[in-house]
Write a structure and sequence with these properties.
- The chain is an all-alpha fold and 120 residues long.
- The chain has 2 domains: 80 residues; 40 residues, no CATH class.
- Helices cover 67% and strands 0% of the residues.
- It contains 4 helices and no strands.
- It is elongated, with a radius of gyration of 19 Å.
Length: 120
């Protein structure tokens, strides 16, 4: 992959990383807030559900942050754009859609079917 394309993907990854880090920090701050003195059972349930939902989202965001960090390391190692499993090229359209992807389309399908151990 040429240097211009690598720089483009690196910039996209860094922007997504910054946005996700801000989101995770905001959610963590919300989780640390003191519980309001809610007396209505329905309101307490909504508050509890909202926190559970946000923590679940935060967990997913942390996973993507790790994948982004891994992708940035692959850029530095000059292996970005290569499938971690078959070592073939990852299609440019796939990298445009999900720049932190680890696998080509075929290997990703195998991961999703449970036929290939996810290395990430």
């Amino acid at each position: 992959m040429d240097a211009k394309k690598l720089a483009h993907y690196k910039q996209r990854l860094l922007e997504k990383q910054a946005a996700l880090m801000a989101t995770v920090q905001r959610i963590e701050g919300y989780g640390r807030e003191k519980e309001p003195a809610i007396q209505d059972v329905a309101d307490m349930a909504v508050e509890s559900y909202t926190k559970e939902f946000l923590f679940g989202k935060s967990s997913g965001d942390r996973r993507i942050l790790q994948l982004i960090q891994d992708a940035l390391e692959r850029i530095d190692a000059k292996t970005y754009g290569e499938c971690l499993h078959c070592e073939g090229p990852i299609q440019p359209k796939r990298l445009d859609a999900v720049p932190w992807t680890q696998y080509c389309r075929d290997c990703q399908t195998l991961v999703e079917k449970g036929l290939l151990q996810d290395e990430g």
